[in-house]
Amino acid sequence: MKLLDQFSFTELMPALSTEGMRALDKAAKEALAKDVRQTDAPIEGETRAAIEAGYELMKLAGTALFKKAVEVLDAYRGDVYCGDIYRGSGNAPETQIRTAPRSVAVFVGGGNNGGDGLVLAKLLIEAGIPCTTYSLAAADKFQNEAKMALDDFVQAGGRLIPYSPAAESLSQAGTAPRTPRFADFDLIVDCMLGNGAYGELRELYAAAVRDIAASNIPVVAADAPTGYDSQEHVRREPCTRACETLLFGFPRLDAYTREGGPAFGEASIAPLGYPAGIVEQFSENTFLATEALIPQMLPARDDWGDKRTQGCAMIVAGSGDMPGAAALCTQAALRSGAGLVTLASPEAVMSVLQAKLSEPVFVNLQDIAGQDADSTDDRATALSPAHIPQILEKAAHNQALAIGPGIGSAECTRDAVIEILPQLNCPLVIDADALNAIATHNKTSASPTSGAASYLHSIETAAILTPHRREFERLFGALPTNDIDIPKLLRDIARNTKKVILLKGAPTFVAAPDGRVFIVPAHNSGLAKGGSGDVLTGIITALLAQGLSTCEAAVLGALLHQKAGRIARTKMGAFSMLPSDVIGALPQAFN
User: Rounded distance, CA 252 to CA 21, Å?
Assistant: First the structure.
């Protein structure tokens, strides 16, 4: 089992801001330039050595873009599959090209993003893939490493074609041209502006984006789609809608937010070989956690141990109206490696749960709740303070406990949650209605320092909070209007409460009390269904019971939940998949 702080930055990549990525790129060029000069003397400005170092990075970016273009061509041109053919000459990397593409259109601007596109175009020419390069800048506008890329492109036989917009694109701003201009291409690659562009697009660039959109063919963006404002972190109109965006160096949060995601499409990373020491200087303590981490993070199994050796988990869940939440949470915990799972639920729903489940140990919270309940309707169907001794006795024999799924909002239940949490000694997962109970500590309004936050700080036991957005806002107040600001807020709350905060959504964020924030880039509408959160809670609780820390359990649990959801969607479709299908996909997710 590997801990999160044991991964290298190439395995668990830091997510950088636009400014951070630019600063890292500049520092890396200077460091590489020193190596070229074999001196430690400081380098001021863009010396020849720095430009040459920058061009080496640009060639790495362009090569990665070439491989991505071929990959997308293969994916989108399967209808003309011609067998495995290798097309290549000159310096083009050896790449298997399964299809026979008609041609690729590369749109370049005059900056370094355009230079990346010129490296790509040169490699396409050398690989024998028909390529047309449209430039939105005159040749004399290319400077430094972009000029070096242009020279090599021309030497390889490339020719810049000045982009001239369709009349409709200029005269009908915001309206797609009536006649698609680029429909004869198989792929368009957007290398016009890239990371760091901001403000409204100049009309020539806006017209190009409209022309591209009208062609209705796949678009790959280099570093950022044209029209995305990297300063305000919003999509301007018009904005390229890429099927995929290749991010150079390290991930940027923009590619995974609700604002940026629809424009970036599927984001992938092209590492550029930055020196490790320099990367560490620019880390912002925010990391992209992907499914590739799962195999190394899984807890070790003891083939010689008994069921208790594999971890004992307890779940306090269910009520008269929501027994299904308890069943889903428990089944997910059982499917996630825990050796023994104990389910505590009110007596009135126990027969339903016992009919659904065979494997857990059942703790029947006996019909003594009526003395605390709000009405006869709550009698024996809701968690109550009278049940606390029974729960504490069983909890003492478990390594982790979850509380909240489907317990309801009766006053007696809220009182029980508030009373029992400070008395529990094992690591906790606090979910759903347990979070809503804690939110009642906010007497007037919710904020990161209001009553709920103070109560959570007072709980000494390590815990994971798993709110969705509405539950979060009941606890801590409004979320930022732009997802780009969420990591900072979660970081502060996790530090103040001493708890791990897992904010469910697309993407999912996990914030640890030590200041680290992890982005889990999930966006699956099939998971946006009642019961999905109960499954996540069961997975995380089982991982805690097997010895993972709260931070590791939250990140790994979110990744497994995302992977199982993706598998279930592939099989059942987003419309029809159910939370129980996600549980059914857990064996594949773990393996």
Answer: 8
